[in-house]
Amino acid sequence: MTLGELAQRFDLQLDGDAQRTVSGLATLASAGPDDISFLSNKKYASQLLDTRAAAVILHPDLASQCPVATLATADPYLAFARSTALFDRSPAQPEGIHPAATVSPGAVIANDASIGPNAVVEAGARVGSGASIGANAYIGHNTEIGAGTRIQPGVVIYHNVKLGARCRVHSQAVLGADGFGFAPGPGGWEKIHQLGGVSIGDDVEIGACTTIDRGALDDTVIEDGAIIDNLVQIAHNCRIGKNTAIAGCTGLAGSTIIGANCTLAGGVGVVGHVEICDGVHVTGMTMVTRSITEPGSYSSGTPMATTREWRKSAVRFSQLERIQQRLAALEKKQ
Amino acid sequence: MTLGELAQRFDLQLDGDAQRTVSGLATLASAGPDDISFLSNKKYASQLLDTRAAAVILHPDLASQCPVATLATADPYLAFARSTALFDRSPAQPEGIHPAATVSPGAVIANDASIGPNAVVEAGARVGSGASIGANAYIGHNTEIGAGTRIQPGVVIYHNVKLGARCRVHSQAVLGADGFGFAPGPGGWEKIHQLGGVSIGDDVEIGACTTIDRGALDDTVIEDGAIIDNLVQIAHNCRIGKNTAIAGCTGLAGSTIIGANCTLAGGVGVVGHVEICDGVHVTGMTMVTRSITEPGSYSSGTPMATTREWRKSAVRFSQLERIQQRLAALEKKQ
Amino acid sequence: MTLGELAQRFDLQLDGDAQRTVSGLATLASAGPDDISFLSNKKYASQLLDTRAAAVILHPDLASQCPVATLATADPYLAFARSTALFDRSPAQPEGIHPAATVSPGAVIANDASIGPNAVVEAGARVGSGASIGANAYIGHNTEIGAGTRIQPGVVIYHNVKLGARCRVHSQAVLGADGFGFAPGPGGWEKIHQLGGVSIGDDVEIGACTTIDRGALDDTVIEDGAIIDNLVQIAHNCRIGKNTAIAGCTGLAGSTIIGANCTLAGGVGVVGHVEICDGVHVTGMTMVTRSITEPGSYSSGTPMATTREWRKSAVRFSQLERIQQRLAALEKKQ
């Protein structure tokens, strides 16, 4: 790939030798003479001076500070994101059904799909064109895997789950396990069999060890373009809106409804049966205890301190009602 | 199934056509004329008016508001739970050992048990009558799976683990991995090999990606009827009492003892070596830092606010000791 | 094994019959006459009186209180840890490649390594001497597994991951899944393909269902002797220092740098791009929102209370800014 081809492909303004070839993409600090690099945060502009990269993707305003060739654009982070696809050397599974796979005769597999070794595909399942089912993965009865969707090794998808096109599901994710529904009975908990499914749109990414439970009666729904990190729990009957991003270790209780274009940082918890409107950002480890009806940023928690200092604040937290009463008494005396 | 049969089976009082047949169970909003539905929360009573359901399971007090046939009972939620079993269409694995399974000649498999494709069952393991081991699951040496217990695809159960009857273990759960035990040594951490096992009672449900570690010397114990959601961590030597429920993303440190009939909401954390008595409820994301000796409800954390408002409170939290001192100084001056 | 052999092997001072043989290791309460036991916490010294153990590993200061034979040492916990290895009966996988494994002809497997049933090893992968790949595990292209490293059943390791010697990786762990990197584009999130790998040192332990993502451009790095519990999320480009311990349910956002000899308790969350120096302890469920440059112990959160009491404090927390203003107004009037 030449710098000229890169510039044309991603609509970048090249200042440098268009014929120069590059073979990799690296940080400013580690790039060598065969790599391109990028600068998207002005804070790191000083790293330009020492870079050995062949060329740097950056904002036009910073081009003059760069000692090597530049590929300028108003959104260098986006151009960087797009160029990663060119340099991705991830191995692809070969087309066809591996001889060690177990595919039911009642499953429908596209000719150009790929089924890895020891993968199991049950009756009534459909695997679309160009889709890939990794080694040791499991696809349940009547589950649909859309075109171009990539299921990584070890993923388990229960019956009656529908994934759209171009999704990526990382290893050990579980889609369609039973929602956690039980009624108290005279002899203990009685299971509410989970009769719904899971419905996932197009272009959804689901992280490793993430669990998305099937609905109790209706489906749990993940809309197009949502991105979900590792170790996230999405309980039964949740609905996640379009292009919403959920970071790792977040847990959503049952029937949580989240709008479009939201971002939940890591470790957030949402109690059940609340609704979060479009355009909400929730900061890390926040406990969302009620519905959110206005876009904006929301938080909870307390700031980190040394354990010694924190203990003092924590004790006083328990006394806050009394502190407020003492303050009110003093005010009255004035 | 007719309404009359339903009424008789679950001891419901039918007001309607006993011969009418139904084939599904759905919410009031989505039920069609072949479905029954249910109403357990008075808050949703207004949805009765528009339902197209054939009949509705509800409390006798609400029957008069229902425009369609009614199946009345004092506990409609329990009746709903029980009726889900009738409409569950989850595919069952066929009896017998799948040819792609790897079963040690030293394992004992009941004739009517089911071992799925690519499942591995090691020597000394026992799989009881009617039990089912899902595709790609692993059952370690000398592990016992009780009668009617259902192990979903991909589950890993290490050696010397005992599960009782009628349990359900969801995909990617790990039972019996090493507890996190290390002693500081002169050259770094020295592993404490975990010599205990895991002992799980009857009628226990274990969620997807949940981990229950083996004990250091004695067993980690889960008692009959406990229900555990997804992504829960139960460390070595914990003991979970009868019919206790633990929601998703909760983590219990080593040697936590929890009594019977407790409920831990999602994202709770329990420090090690504490004891929680019977009948305790812990609200979501609570940090349990000491033993609980009285039944009741317990909490910690701070309420959610806009990030802008939260920042102000968070700063003042760090100053609480100083605020208390200033207040005390003022009180002295009075 | 005789008491004399134990004393010699671990440099313990025996007071008792050197010829007596023992076959197990148990707690003071459950040890029988064929077991040794240990006492490392003075708090439990009273349990010595009733023990039926053949001998007890303990501190010399407590030896006089012990009614049975003693194995004295200045660090009884370390001696206990080392002796667990002697009594570990965990089954080992037999050497060689199981006939149901799928090993690429382009993989290099040491003669004395073990590849379990249904394990998949891709081209370019290398499995070192004495290493063991569990049943249903997956080893991606060009991934290296060091000598003596033990991969438990069901683990998934993507391509271009390097593990050192004598590591242990527990079931369902995922090493090398894509980091959670996306750039906002005009039509939604655009994936940043993750071009880095994961590099893991020697003697590292990784818990069940723990996820360690591959780097965006450079590698995610875990240094020698680090120990990581279950259900931990380590995002792309993190670096974990030597002998650092991370307990269960902890989540590290991208590019977190943690020094050597740190301990993070369970449920900790660390925001991205912060640095934690050597020798830091973080208490359970702490939200680490900034870099830590001084060794010591750090905390956040609020103490547990009854839900009734907690609600009062929580309401006042939201009013802290106003409380501080009222206090300042009173002070002014003095």
From TrEMBL, chains A, B, C:
One of its GO terms (molecular function) is N-acyltransferase activity. Pfam families: Hexapep, LpxD. The active site is at H236. InterPro entries: Hexapep, Hexapep_transf_CS, LpxD, Trimer_LpxA-like_sf, UDP_GlcNAc_AcTrfase_non-rep. It comes from the Bacteria. It is an enzyme of class 2 (transferase). One of its GO terms (cellular component) is membrane. Keywords: Acyltransferase, Lipid A biosynthesis, Lipid biosynthesis, Lipid metabolism, Repeat, Transferase. GO terms for biological process: lipid A biosynthetic process. SUPFAM superfamilies: Trimeric LpxA-like enzymes (SSF51161). It catalyses: a UDP-3-O-[(3R)-3-hydroxyacyl]-alpha-D-glucosamine + a (3R)-hydroxyacyl-[ACP] = a UDP-2-N,3-O-bis[(3R)-3-hydroxyacyl]-alpha-D-glucosamine + holo-[ACP] + H(+). CDD domains: LbH_LpxD. Its EC number is 2.3.1.191. Residues 20-85 form the UDP-3-O-[3-hydroxymyristoyl] glucosamine N-acyltransferase non-repeat region domain. Pathway: Bacterial outer membrane biogenesis; LPS lipid A biosynthesis. Belongs to the transferase hexapeptide repeat family. LpxD subfamily. Catalyzes the N-acylation of UDP-3-O-acylglucosamine using 3-hydroxyacyl-ACP as the acyl donor. Is involved in the biosynthesis of lipid A, a phosphorylated glycolipid that anchors the lipopolysaccharide to the outer membrane of the cell. Homotrimer. This is UDP-3-O-acylglucosamine N-acyltransferase. It comes from Pseudohalioglobus sediminis.
